[in-house]
Structures are given as structure tokens and as C-alpha cells.
Specification:
- There is one protein chain.
- By secondary structure, this protein is of the alpha/beta class.
- It has 3 domains: 1-78, no CATH class; 84-143, no CATH class; 172-442, no CATH class.
- The chain has 5 helices and 27 strands.
- The strands form 6 sheets. The protein has an 8-stranded parallel β-sheet.
- It starts with 56 loop residues before the first helix and ends in a 10-residue tail after the last strand.
Length: 452
């Protein structure tokens, strides 16, 4: 049987006729009046000879008007919004119900649980909504739009449209010199991106991905267009609330180290060895806007970097610099070099008293003039882990990368806004005060080499 689309109601029933507005309840049933809850009363179902009362034609028109009013709204593409009174009366929205946002006309919510009484308009970020059965949120999901090329149009943290690759694509490649010809098989059929920011943009909010940077095309810059031209529109890597790992491909020495680790079943990160030259990434900055190079959302933005030398450019476009370069991301660094520290106040900074963490694994810290701050503590709480070893490995061709992490980060002068606060006493009578760094959680024994 084929189905033919019925003609829409061009007008509502009795739109220009005589009708009554049928109430939900409380009709004068003795006179044969109808209401929604009880319908036509029993008296209208008896013969007039037996004391019955004829039903009112105006009630018939009123009921059919109300029904066709709703049908016509739906036929016209109308989408309903959250209605608390309606929701409470029916016991919550059913699974699969779709309603429109009252804040953004282009946002539609779909209900992911039975009997949902939550108002989705009370929530402002995608992470507060249903993401999966393990992250149920408020039970409403923001409706996404799949396309034929396996991409997804979704809503960002400020409810704007964005399109990204499908969620199962977690490996992205950057090669600025790519000319369309075939090259490394590791890339498969995917064309590499021209710069790091373009790859970041193609990762959905809250997504996790590894961005592989082609070593021979270095050095790189942390501006979105991979140039030294820093300005308000071309300034920094915007990580947002994404989980980004940056690593290197196309370096023969690094590939050899990785192969030997695999062949000998060594439990090591290939980036912590010294037998390859780090990829140089320069950090220009502009004083306005966010005043940082790698920017993210506190508590959810993560940046994992390996085998990179981050070099602060000894010049700021636009005047004096007043921010931190990496802010306020969770940071993991493996076998990296941080060069020219001291040109600006700090390399890493938090935001607004929040808690975050940094892991430093076999890294070097080089200052411009022998001094400089890496961390800006301010009012934030930083959990710092530092890993470092110099033992030569038996039956292994490579040596650990020379690290000064514990020495550099073990000095109070490496922290901007370093303060000591009294946290306890060594005796029960309140003597022998114990002081710890304010906002810093670390096992490192700190040397107080500054005036407090």
C-alpha cells in the first residue's frame, strides 16, 4: 500500500463558524455542555423523550477547531517548546520527544529518557546535556546532523553551528608543504592539514585526538596560520575543551628509537631520549585578546606535547605582555625543551582559583638570562608531577635526554606569585609551624631562593 501525503488544513475547522471554547473541565453538564476531560455528558446520549438534552453544535465545532488547530501547526512545521504545566500533567516528556530551544531558534533538543521533567533551556553548555549512557546529563541531547561524508554538524559550547569529522577519526596530520601527491602510508587516504589550528578545528567539542606534525616542514609557529605574524585574529592555538596530543612524524632518528623500543619490549616513551633533534615551535604573542598562545577551557582542555622545543620569541607585538603562554590547560610534556623563559612573566597560568595539573617528563628548561618563571600560581591550585632519570639502560642503544626539570622546578623563583602559607605545626602546643606553597601540590623539595 502506498501512502499519499494528505492535504494540509488550509483553515481550522469552523474557523469562521459559530463555536464555543470548550474548557478542560467544569462544563455545565446539566445543559448538555462538553469539556475536554469528560467529553459530552451522559444526558446528551438519551432521547429527549427520556429527559435527554441534545449536544451543542457549537461544542462540536469548538472541539474540532482545537484538534485541527494542533494538526495545522504540525503540518506547518511547528515545533513545540518546553511547557512545565503540560510536562507535569503528563508525568514528563516521553523518550524520543523533540522540542525547540526557547533561547536559540536553530537548536532542537531530543529527550533520551522516559518521563523527563527537566527544562533543557535551563542549561547552557553541551556538557550539561546527555552525551552517552555513562554521561546522562539532564536527559536531553542536542540534536546533531549526520551528513553523507560521515561528518557531523554539531553545536559548540556557545551553541553555534560547527562541522567536524566523525567521532571515530582520532588521528589527524599536519604537513604545510603537502602538494596533493602521495607520500607516507601512515596518512592513508586522508589529506593532511596546512596548520595545527585547522586540525584542532576539526575535532568536536570534548573530543580526543592526536595531531601528528610533519617534522621536515619545521620550524612551526603557534599562530593558526603557522607564521610569525601575531595579531588579534591570528594569535594562538585555541584548544577549547578538547583533549589534544601533539606528536611528530617524518623524523628518521625518532622512528629508529621507536622501533627499537618496540622490538625490545622496552616500557619507555620514545620522546625522552636524546638521539634526535627536537622540533622547533616558536611562540609569538599579541598583548590583547586572551594574552596566551595555547588557550583552553579550565577543567576540560588538555594539551599533551612530545619531542618539541617551545621557543619564546624575544619580542611582543603590541607592547608589554601581561599573560601566560599556556592558559589554563592541563599540560603533559614529554622530552620537551622550553627555551627563552624569562622574556615574559610566565609560560603556564591557571584561571580563577581552579584546580588543574601538569606533568613534566624528562624536559629541559632554558632561561634567557638565568632567571624566569615557568608557572604563574596566582590563586589557582596546581598539582605538579616531575619525572626524571639519568640511568643508562642495559642492552639499549639510546640515552635519556638531559633533563634539568627537578633542578629548575625545585626553585621557588620558577614560580610567579610564590607564597608560603602556614598549614600546621610540628607539636601539639602550636609550635614549630609548617609552611607549604600556596596553590602548589608537588612532592618536589623546593628551595626558597627568593625573598618572600
Amino acid at each position: 500500500m502506498s501512502l499519499t501525503r494528505p492535504d494540509p488544513f488550509l483553515s481550522k475547522w469552523a474557523e469562521n463558524g459559530e463555536r464555543y471554547d470548550v474548557p478542560n473541565s467544569g462544563a455545565d453538564t446539566a445543559k448538555g455542555k462538553a469539556d475536554i476531560q469528560t467529553g459530552f455528558p451522559e444526558i446528551t446520549m438519551k432521547s429527549v423523550l427520556n429527559g435527554g438534552v441534545p449536544p451543542w453544535g457549537q461544542d462540536h465545532n469548538g472541539i474540532l477547531y482545537k484538534i485541527t488547530e494542533g494538526v495545522q501547526w504540525t503540518q506547518a512545521g511547528g515545533t513545540y517548546i518546553y511547557d512545565k504545566n503540560f510536562c507535569d500533567t503528563i508525568g514528563g516528556y516521553p523518550l524520543g520527544a523533540k522540542i525547540k530551544s526557547t533561547i536559540y531558534n536553530y537548536v532542537t533538543f531530543i529527550n533520551m529518557k522516559e518521563g523527563n521533567k527537566e527544562n533543557p533551556n535551563d542549561y547552557t553548555t553541551p556538557n550539561e546535556f546527555w552525551l552517552s549512557d555513562a554521561k546522562k546529563g539532564n536527559g536531553w541531547a542536542i540534536l546533531t546532523i549526520p551528513s553523507s561524508d560521515n561528518s557531523i554538524t554539531y553545536y559548540t559550547s556557545d551553541f553555534k553551528f560547527a562541522t567536524t569529522v566523525a567521532g571515530n577519526k582520532t588521528e589527524l596530520f599536519v604537513r604545510p608543504s603537502f602538494d596533493g601527491s602521495n607520500f607516507l602510508k601512515i596518512e592513508g587516504s586522508n589529506k593532511p592539514y596546512q596548520n595545527v589550528q585547522a586540525a584542532i578545528n576539526d575535532i568536536a567539542d570534548g573530543g580526543t585526538a592526536t595531531i601528528h606534525i610533519y617534522y621536515p616542514d619545521g620550524p612551526y609557529y603557534t599562530t593558526p596560520d603557522n607564521t610569525s605574524n601575531a595579531n588579534t585574529d591570528n594569535q594562538y592555538w585555541n584548544i577549547g575543551n578538547k583533549n589534544i596530543t601533539l606528536d611528530i612524524y617524518g623524523n628518521d632518528d625518532l622512528d629508529k628509537i621507536g622501533k627499537e623500543i618496540t622490538d625490545n619490549f622496552k616500557p619507555y616513551n620514545k620522546y625522552v631520549f636524546k638521539e634526535y633533534e627536537r622540533l622547533k615551535v616558536y611562540m609569538p604573542s599579541y598583548t590583547s585578546h586572551s594574552s596566551c598562545v595555547a588557550s583552553g577551557i579550565v577543567g576540560s582542555g588538555n594539551l599533551n606535547i612530545s619531542g618539541i622545543e617551545l621557543i619564546v620569541i624575544d619580542q611582543v607585538v603590541g607592547g608589554d605582555f601581561n599573560g601566560a603562554f599556556i592558559n589554563p590547560l592541563k599540560l603533559d610534556a614529554h622530552g620537551c625543551i622550553f627555551s627563552n623563559i624569562g622574556v615574559y612573566p610566565a609560560i603556564w597560568g591557571g584561571w580563577g582559583g581552579n584546580t588543574t595539573s601538569v606533568k613534566i617528563d624528562q624536559c629541559q628548561f632554558n632561561t634567557k638570562d638565568g632567571s624566569g618563571h615557568f608557572f604563574w600560581l596566582s590563586s589557582d591550585i596546581l598539582s605538579l608531577t616531575v619525572l626524571e632519570t639519568f640511568n643508562q639502560l642495559e642492552d639499549f642503544s639510546y640515552e635519556f635526554f638531559a633533563s634539568n626539570s627537578k633542578d629548575f622546578l625545585g626553585k621557588a623563583s620558577s614560580y610567579l606569585d610564590f607564597k608560603l602559607v602556614k598549614t600546621g605545626y610540628t607539636t601539639s602546643d602550636g609550635k614549630g609551624a609548617i609552611y607549604t606553597p600556596q596553590g602548589l601540590n608537588t612532592y618536589l623539595p623546593l628551595t626558597i631562593d627568593i625573598e618572600l
